[in-house]
Amino acid sequence: MNPNETADRDEIYALLGRVVAQLLQPGEVLPLQEIIGALYRAGARAEDPAIQDACDRAIRLLASKLN
What we know:
The chain is mostly helical and about 70 residues long. The protein has helices spanning about 5-25, 30-45, 50-65. It has one domain (about 5-15, about 30-65).
């Protein structure tokens, strides 16, 4: 894995962590679809193309886990 792929992966995981932390309530189960929806909304609201791209990549990563 090259350094760019590692940085991209780290960025995606950091974004996932922030989104999940904002959604998660104590004792609550968080469905994967809800996380994907939150990432979609975050990407749609973001003005920074890098954030939009990170959200898109995170959505694809999670969607692949659904299959």
